[in-house]
Amino acid sequence: MKFHRNILDLDVAQESERIEEMIRETVLKRFKRRGVVIGVSGGIDSSTVLALAVRALGAKRVFALTMPEKESSGDSEQLAIELTKQYGVELIKEDLTPMLNAAGCYVGRDAAVRDLFPEYDPAKHGIKITLPGDLLEKSSLNVFSLVMIDKEGNEKSRLMPPKAFLEVVAASNFKQRSRMMTLFYHAERRNYAVIGTANKDEHMQGFFVKYGDGGVDLQPIQHLFKTQVFQLAAHVGVPQSIIDRIPTTDTYSAGSSQEEFFYRLPFDLMDPIWYGLENDIPAAEVAEAFDLTAQQVENVYRELRQKIKTTEYLRAVPAML
What is the pTM of this model? Predict the structure, then answer.
């Protein structure tokens, strides 16, 4: 088959049935659990997985949590409420701010931010970290910048030295691990499994936290590209307000899209190019389908290979003799 820009189009009805059967088989028969617990954020992945779980198990066997903290977007909670009402799923809110405060999560992070921006005040500024957005034009190192934004929208940006980067990322990862602890607490109370929401882009490129959002019992959409998750979302009736929302990490106080924080390309371009890489399709053939140059596609190929290689440890099981 000749490569084309719609190469990732799914038979959504067939794929939905396949995933629903996997959920039933894994949860009820293999793990012998009564249902699933899921963290919902108003994002496309968790919303699609919730819908698939309801179709597989029924709404009474699906329990949802929204787990905001003081830097979360208010939109996330409202969209989670809209989603769970539509599917008839019980939703509770667990505010993680006290847990994160007690652990000193914000204190160490804020100190690292002030090393770059001495005037930083969490009450006056938001922060996020970003990667260069020029992947198509040149192959460059993934060097992160810290961006500080004041209430008027004025931005300052500085490259992050390793120490500051590690401190900020450690704090954001702590948020993810706190969410996972909370999910397992509620799952074990009910004899439920924790169902994950990672897609292929996140899993293979390392856009997840080990033993955080990656520490779940089953991952029903881990084999799907993000663009394919959008296709499934429309099929299973995810609210349009969620489908239209720009994918975000909802981890940083300034808000950060997944594209600017990590992927560097829109999913509808990155995913089919990745398919070309996996299937040994020449860069020139992929480039022709998207009106790109072969060099631009090679830049993306190189980026994908590097991310997959450098994040292999995240997907590895614990080393042992």
Answer: 0.93
- Is 205:311 a contact under the CB 8 Å cutoff? yes
Q: Give the burial class of 108: count Cβ atoms within 10 A of its Cβ; 0-12 exposed, 13-18 middle, 19 or more buried.
A: middle
270-295 tens-digit pLDDT: 999 999 999 999 999 999 999 999 99
> For 30, which DSSP code?
I
Q: Are residues 57 and 144 in the same domain?
A: no
Q: Write out the two tokens for 173.
A: 């990862």
Nearest CA to 290 out of 262, 269, 314 is that of 269
Q: How far is the C-alpha of 261 from the C-alpha of 257, rounded, in Å?
A: 6
Among the three residues 112, 142, 166, which one is the final residue of a domain in this structure?
Answer: 166
- For residues 118 and 233, membership in a common domain is answered with no
* Torsion of Cα atoms, 111 then 116 then 121 then 124, to 10°: -150
Q: How far apart are CA 27 and CA 192, in angstroms?
A: 8
DSSP annotation of 119: T
Cβ–Cβ < 8 Å for 64, 50: yes
The tokens of 162 are what?
A: 């390793």
User: Whole-angstrom Cα distance, residue 114 to residue 127?
Assistant: 11
Segment holding 125, helix H or strand E: strand 125-130
Sort strands 90-93 and 62-66 into parallel, antiparallel or unpaired: parallel
309's tokens: 């290689």
Two structure tokens written together for 51: 């819908």
- pLDDT single digits (tens) 115-135: 999 999 999 999 988 887 667
Q: Which two tokens stand for residue 9?
A: 């189009």
Listed residues 148, 166, 184: the one ending a domain? 166
Query: Where does residue 253 fall: left (phi above 0), alpha (psi -120 to 50 degrees), or beta otherwise?
Result: alpha
Pairing of strands 155-159, 145-150: antiparallel
